Amino acid sequence: MVVLSKAMQDMAIYGASLLFTKGFALITLPIMTYFLSAQQIGRLDLIATSAALMSLLVGVALHESLYRYIAKFKRFDDQKRLVSVVFTLSFTISMLASGLWMVSLSAGLLENPWIDTKQLFLIGLIVAFEGPLTICTAWIRIQNRAVLFFKMSMILLVSQFVLLIAVLIYIPSETSVLSIGVLCTSFQFIFLWHYLDIPLTVPRVRRITALLKYAAPLMLSALVLFGLSGGERWIIGVNASLESLGHYAVAMKFAIATGVLMQPFGMWWMPKRFQYFNQFGNETVARYSQYGLVYLALLCVLVAWTAKAVISLFLDPQYQISIFYCIGAIAVVMLKESTEIVNFGILKSKQNHWILVNNLVWTTIGLSLCWVLIDYGVLALIFAIWLSQLGRLFSIYIKSQSLTPMPYKGHSCALLLSVSLLSILTIALDLDPISSVLFAFTQITAIVWLANKLELAPSLFSKVRLLRPLVGRYD
Three-state DSSP class for 218? Predict the structure, then answer.
């Protein structure tokens, strides 16, 4: 049996789950824009951005510590003990942070003209659950229990969809929509905690120190980087208008969809790449990473044309400007995802502090450019973020290669991603539906041909199965 057959099945299941659940916002986009104004869409995006920022801060990236250290344990009981320790630490931090948030809210310290008190209260509830919930889902992925993940996701999807339709018909407001997300998140957390039977364990100080020492720089790095994938929304909302933010939020739905569709690869590959490096060497890791880049190049083109079709056919004419925003937003995601794929040597060498400093530099540059260019419109702001992500990609690639040289075909990968980027730009053309379909099909076919020509992917005509050459067979 081929080693990767089970892995490919898990990736397909994860992909189906994420396609429906995390793509829920995209699926319901036409409904949301029908019942809510662009200003309300913008405010919802501002609330979601704030909640994501708080969850990132409180989560402390402890799931990354779980991925990093669980490979040291072979026995299930030892792994479960580590999960219990990480979960308890995450649960404790989340409860303390949520309590502090509620006290600050009661004291009036969080008041602002964009998010009201009820919405701030709901954000506090999200903060209480997101961290430990992430540990639960990470434990599911580590155990390769993709079917459980799929069933849970589908139940939540149906429930959330029914509740959303009811709320939009009878109580169409930002607070009611946000309440649905809080309800579903809390239910998912409570169910998984009891189903997985993760006990609360008092961790030793030395273990806490080790977990936080690895995770904290990653969290701070992600927090800093959040300025390039969230901070710009605050700039738009405050300096432009919530309506402009609503238009930008529509484009970001499709950019997020690109990241969501990359997650099946990432959810399977990221936790295992260190193990595969030890077992099969750097050539295998490089090949897997290049497969990820090929998938990313194809995905960006597919999502870009899908965005054009959805916005043109199903949304109000006022959202047509979002098509142009999609070009930049998806291009930014392309660079961001590419950086995650090639960032192996730095993580392997545990130089997470370097990632933090690097992200701080490029985020500062990016946000500074945003403030300078905000008067030139949202497109100029997106371009500033794209330049910063490009600089970040090059700096991390060079540093990672200096620590752990990988036999990437760098020039070939750069050419492939450049062709993908040029293809994305063509969605700005004023084409009829049939021409758009022909353009999309031609571009995707060309990228597949180019990937094979550059030997970044196995030949489509090879009799050898796609991933068999990489790892061989079990003895």
Answer: helix
Helix or strand (DSSP H, E) at 346 = helix 345-348
* Alpha-carbon gap, residue 219 to 95, rounded angstroms: 18
Give CA–CA dist 66/131, Å, rounded: 13
Neighbours of 209 (CB within 10 A): 11
Instruction: For residues 41 and 296, give the distance between their C-alpha atoms in angstroms, rounded to a whole number.
Output: 28
In a 3-state reduction of DSSP, which class is residue 326? Answer: helix
- Which of 160, 165, 127, 147 is closest to 21 using CA atoms? 160
Q: Could you read off the pLDDT of 138-190 as tens digits, one per residue? A: 888 888 787 888 888 888 888 989 999 999 999 888 899 999 989 988 998 99
Q: Give Cα 437 to chain centroid, integer Å.
A: 27
Residues ≥6 apart with Cβ < 8 Å to 387 = 366, 369
Q: Are 8 and 15 in contact (CB under 8 A)?
A: no
The reported pLDDT for the residue numbered 468 is 46
Counting Cα atoms < 13 Å in the Cβ hemisphere of 190 gives 8
Please answer whether residues 345 and 399 qualify as being in contact, where contact means their C-beta atoms are separated by less than 8 angstroms.
Answer: yes
C-alpha pair distances (Å), 224 with each of 90, 177, 221: 20, 28, 5
C-alpha dist (Å) from residue 316 to 10, 309, 392: 38, 13, 36
Res 475: pLDDT: 35
Query: Which residue type occupies 11?
Result: M
277-314 pLDDT, tens digit each: 888 888 888 888 999 999 999 999 999 999 999 999 88
Distance between CA atoms of 242 and 246, rounded to whole angstroms?
A: 6
Distances (CA, A) of 360 to 346, 351, 356, 376: 16, 15, 6, 25
pLDDT of residue 420: 96
Residue with tokens 């969605």: 427
Q: Give the pLDDT mean for 120-135.
A: 91
| Residue owning tokens 């985020």 | 363
For range 25-39, the mean pLDDT: 86
Distance CA 193, CA 214 (A): 24
Longest dimension (CA), the chain: 68
Residue type, 383: F
Cα gap 286→58, rounded to integer Å: 33
| pTM of full prediction above 0.90 | no
Paired strand residues for 2: 473
2 in helix, strand or coil?
strand
Question: In the numeric block, which tokens belong to residue 53?
Answer: 């920022």
Quote the CA–CA distance of 182 and 55 in Å, as a whole number. Answer: 13
Q: What is the dihedral of CA 440, 443, 444, 445, to 10 degrees?
A: 120
